[in-house]
């Protein structure tokens, strides 16, 4: 089909393929969620409903995009790891990034009222997104370790910060000043001695974030077809599993070694 005389402008669209055979990590992060969490009265430091809503949106993304093998979420962010060999949208960066960020956002909004039945959305939330390529398994593991370590650092800080404000009746400025320069041992100690909180007993969702992995189970034997007794082919069952486990140590990666 012959184009119009204007069609040459299409040539200004530059291809943006992602390097073949590399691990792709796509991270979405809530835009201005400090404000969003305040205007929607999120419980501080951790609003369980908000985290579950993030998990629901991430699960929906993984149901739609089968090449995502692992996801990790904390606070207002989610990271998605793709199969190294994925050919999704011919590995076009902006196509992949824009559709997934858009899909995640839609799922967040569609599920809002399920998790916040008595809090209407005040304005449309949005998410930013980026894709980073990693050459080997080592960087992939270190990436996820980095995010989970971040979860721990932020959660320990926020738990103590909000205890000082809510129970210690400090101003937020005083709470920040009190925490400045403290190391994690001191924070644990303050939590325990001042507020009787044993950090390790807090919800694993808050301390470890959310991990969604795609598990493939091949049934060992399949009962014969009832109608003619013939043997049926074992269909691998693919399930999405959400947990709040440690992903820094070896155990997790040994268990899911087949996905990388
Ligand atoms: P940016 O647009 O640069 O990402 P931001 O305001 O979203 O800015 P972040 O560093 O992404 O800043 O931090 C997200 C903020 O959202 C947290 O600091 C916290 O205040 C709030 N938040 C996100 N999820 C929750 C939650 N489940 N419970 C309570 N607060 C939350
Ligand atoms: P891609 O994901 O590659 O963009 P696509 O299916 O969205 O694929 P487009 O080239 O973007 O394809 O074309 C959008 C299609 O959506 C149109 O061809 C048409 O079939 C349909 N469409 C969009 N808007 C309307 C509309 N207002 N009324 C009827 N059909 C529409
Ligand atoms: Mg944010
Ligand atoms: Mg964030």
UniProtKB/TrEMBL annotation:
Gene3D superfamilies: 3.30.70.3000
InterPro entries: Thg1_C_dom, tRNAHis_GuaTrfase_cat, tRNAHis_GuaTrfase_Thg1, tRNAHis_GuaTrfase_Thg1_sf
Catalysed transformations (reactions): a 5'-end ribonucleotide-tRNA(His) + GTP + ATP + H2O = a 5'-end phospho-guanosine-ribonucleotide-tRNA(His) + AMP + 2 diphosphate + H(+)
Binding positions (Mg(2+) 1): 29-30, 76
Domain of life of the native organism: Eukaryota
Protein name listed in UniProt: tRNA(His) guanylyltransferase
Gene Ontology MF annotations: GTP binding; magnesium ion binding; tRNA guanylyltransferase activity
Region (Disordered): 213-235
Annotated residues for binding of Mg(2+) 2: 29, 76
Cofactor note text: Binds 2 magnesium ions per subunit.
Domain tRNAHis guanylyltransferase catalytic positions: 6-135
Gene Ontology BP terms: tRNA modification
Record carries keyword Transferase: yes
Ligand binding (GTP): 29-34, 75-76
Keyword GTP-binding part of the UniProt annotation: yes
Domain Thg1 C-terminal: residue ranges: 138-248
């Amino acid at each position: 089909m012959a184009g119009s005389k204007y069609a040459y402008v299409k040539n200004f669209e530059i291809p943006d393929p992602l390097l073949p055979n590399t691990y792709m990590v796509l991270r979405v992060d809530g835009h201005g969620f400090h404000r969003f969490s305040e205007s929607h009265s999120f419980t501080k430091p951790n609003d369980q409903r908000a985290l579950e809503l993030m998990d629901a949106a991430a699960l929906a993304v993984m149901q739609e995009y089968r090449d995502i093998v692992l996801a990790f979420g904390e606070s207002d962010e989610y990271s998605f790891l793709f199969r190294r060999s994925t050919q999704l949208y011919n590995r076009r960066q902006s196509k992949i990034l824009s559709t997934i960020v858009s899909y995640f956002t839609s799922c967040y909004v569609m599920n809002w009222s399920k998790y916040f039945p008595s809090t209407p959305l005040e304005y449309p939330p949005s998410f930013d997104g980026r894709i980073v390529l990693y050459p080997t398994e080592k960087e992939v593991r270190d990436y996820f370790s980095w995010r989970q370590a971040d979860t721990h650092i932020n959660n320990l800080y926020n738990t103590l910060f909000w205890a000082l404000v809510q129970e210690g009746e400090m101003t937020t400025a005083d709470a920040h000043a009190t925490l400045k320069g403290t190391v994690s041992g001191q924070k644990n100690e303050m939590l325990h001695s001042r507020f009787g909180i044993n950090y390790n007993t807090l919800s694993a969702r808050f301390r470890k974030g959310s991990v969604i992995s795609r598990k493939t189970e091949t049934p060992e034997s399949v009962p014969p077809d009832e109608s003619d007794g013939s043997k049926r082919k074992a269909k691998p069952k693919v399930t999405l599993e959400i947990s709040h486990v440690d992903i820094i140590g070896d155990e997790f990666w040994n268990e899911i070694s087949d996905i990388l």
